[in-house]
Amino acid sequence: MLALVVSCASVANAQAPALNTLTVAEKAAGWRLLFDGASMSAWRGYKMADMPPEWSVVNGSLTKTKTTEDIVTREQFSNFELLVDWKLELRGNSGIFYRATEEQSRVYWSAPEYQLAEDSLTPDSKNIMTAVGAVYGFYPSIRGVAHPANEWNSTRIVVQGAHVEHWLNGRMLSQYELWSAEWNRKLHGDPSDTTKRPLKFAPYPNFALAKSGYIAIQGDHNGALSLRNLKIRALK
Question: How far apart are CA 220 and CA 66, in angstroms?
Answer without folding.
Answer: 8
